[in-house]
Amino acid sequence: MVVVVVVVLGCGVVECSVTYDRKALIINGQRRILISGSIHYPRSTPEMWEDLINKAKEGGLDVIETYVFWNVHEPSPGNTAMKGFTKKIVNMMKTENLYESQGGPIILSQIENEYGPQANLLGAPGRQYVTWAADMAVGLDTGVPWVMCKEDDAPDPVINTCNGFYCDAFSPNKPFKPMIWTEAWTGWFTEFGGPVHQRPVEDLAFSVARFLQKGGSFVNYYMAYVYSSESGDCAAFLSNYDTNSKVGVMFNNMHYSLPPWSISILPDCKNVVFNTAKVGVQTSQMEMLPTNTEIFSWETYNEDLSSSDDSSTFSTLGLLEQINVTRDSSDYLWYTTSTLADTLRHGTPASWVLLHCGDLIRENGICLGQNGHTRYHLPRSWLKPTQNLLVLFEEIGGDPTRITLVKRSVTSVCADVAEYHPNIENWQVESYGKTEEFRKPRVHLHCGPGQSISSIKFASFGTPLGTCGSFQQGTCHAPTSYTVLAKKCIGQQRCSVTISSRNFGRDPCPNTLKRLSVEAICAPLD
Predict the structure, then answer these.
(1) What percent of the chain has pLDDT over 70?
(2) What number does CATH give the domain 3-184?
(3) Which residue has the higher pLDDT, 11 or 347?
């Protein structure tokens, strides 16, 4: 059983109420569209928490979602003490007045986590457990709604929510409950020795925008979801579901161009303030660079393991007192066991492969002799300026003198922005009837701490091709591109350049939509 709390950033100290209807959560009488991010505190060191929260606020998040890890809070090793755990955690929150109903920041709680598939396998007992868990949670009287993710049978008033890569087809089990996406998957787990699964940010933006549309229909490769009110307020989503071709759309007597697999958001049914295929954020290229730090004073100890013959093995039930068995001559005592499995209920013995390694082997990154990690992350908050002690346990041999320290560093940064990139400030200017000149889009580059931009590897204002790390000039190119970027950025930790033909001397190709693509090299400060 897992309790999840969702916290609003920047909520005032005045008392607020949290309810819901079919459209949204209602906080202090106001429906809210909330953008949330998960921070799992056991997966980062305490020294990192403040910086993570600051980055969440700077990034525009309304909410932080976190899990209470029952296995991290064991009273003693191996003693999970599940009975009463949820009540204990909730009462701790209530004592500190942390729920929104008490004037605190917690607006939502979750009971259980993706239990639906397991409940379906168990049948009636599984459904009974879901009902019991929901009743128990609601009975704790937190004053805020409860949710269950991936649980279609979540009993009222608990809201069933969606987890997945795409949740636009999801709908709650009752018409009076809102659509909530508790886990928008930004990637997937990395297996030992396997590739790192990365999801393009444009696809993630597309899936979130598509989820926010909440309904409607589409025709061919595009559709318009229009929301209007009696007062005349209007907002629209224009969508292109084709993965290969851009399309032109006529909407409200205006023409719009939609890139493949993208959604344009028009908060006033006229101006595009965001398109999911035009995410103009910087892309950073990372490399593992040697630190040239010497590791001194290696001491190695070999522990010989006895052969598994009759003289060194015996059978017993249960675990033994290790020091008495080994007579303190070894730090290690090995256990082996066997089992007979009914393979697919056909009665044929099966060979089992251990897919989950125990703590001893996982710490070394090797599972059943297969290749594991070659690099291990050492949180910088754990390191001292000097006199750090590194202890390794290696089962199959190795040479510690070949171990080196590397530092994950930003080696280059890229930006790729069109000259008419959607700009929300422009929409705000027009909506308020101001006559000032619209803001031109800009590229923004910044290196990591202790670095500056040492050179410009690529720069082209025109019709460049490719992506970060493999940009190429297109048929249209402003000859001054490199000079403009070099003058503005070299020697700086961060810089920005306005995208306009005037800034590059002249228009290299009139009547053509142009873009600025840049790759800059980051180097340590002298």
Answers:
(1) 74
(2) 3.20.20.80
(3) 11
- Is 183 considered catalytic here? yes
pLDDT digits (tens, 9 = 90+) for 76-91: 777 766 668 888 889 9
Confirm if 218 and 238 have CB atoms less than 8 A apart.
no
3-state secondary structure 61-126: CCEEEEEECHHHHCCECCECCCCCHHHHHHHHHHHCCCEHHHCCCEEEEEECCCCHHHHHHHCHHH
65 is catalytic: no
User: Which residues, 6 or more positions from 210, have their beta carbon under 8 angstroms from its beta carbon?
Assistant: 166, 168, 239, 263
| CATH annotation of 280-293+405-526 | 2.60.120.740
Of 223-232, 391-400, 439-448, the one with minimum mean pLDDT is 223-232
Residue 53 in this model has a pLDDT that exceeds 60: yes
Query: Can you give the C-alpha Rg of the chain in angstroms?
Result: 29
What is the C-alpha separation between 87 and 101, in angstroms, rounded?
A: 17
Closest of 324, 341, 210, 189 to residue 275, by C-alpha: 210
What is the arrangement of strands in the sheet containing 146-149, beginning at the earlier edge strand? 36-38, 63-68, 3-8, 106-111, 146-149, 159-164, 181-184
The predicted-structure confidence for 328-356, as pLDDT tens digits, reads as follows 777 777 766 654 434 333 333 333 333 33
Annotated active-site residue in 100, 183, 230, 294 = 183
What pLDDT does 145 receive? Answer: 94
Mean pLDDT of 397-405: 72
- Is the pTM higher than 0.70? no
Catalytic entry in 100, 114, 151, 437: 114
Q: How long a stretch of residues is the chain?
A: 526
How far is residue 6's CA from residue 110's CA, in Å, rounded to a whole number? 9
- Each domain of the chain, given as residue ranges in start order, spans 3-184, 200-279, 280-293+405-526, 310-399
The whole-angstrom separation of Cα 97 and Cα 68 is 17
Q: Average pLDDT over the chain, rounded to whole?
A: 77
Question: Which value, to the nearest 10 degrees, does the dihedral of the CA atoms of residues 130, 131, 133, 138 take?
Answer: 140
Cis, peptide link before residue 157, omega less than 30° from 0: yes
Q: Which residue type occupies 462?
A: G
Give the confidence band of 462 by pLDDT, cuts at 50, 70, 90. very high
Which of 80, 64, 81, 84 has its CA nearest to residue 5?
64
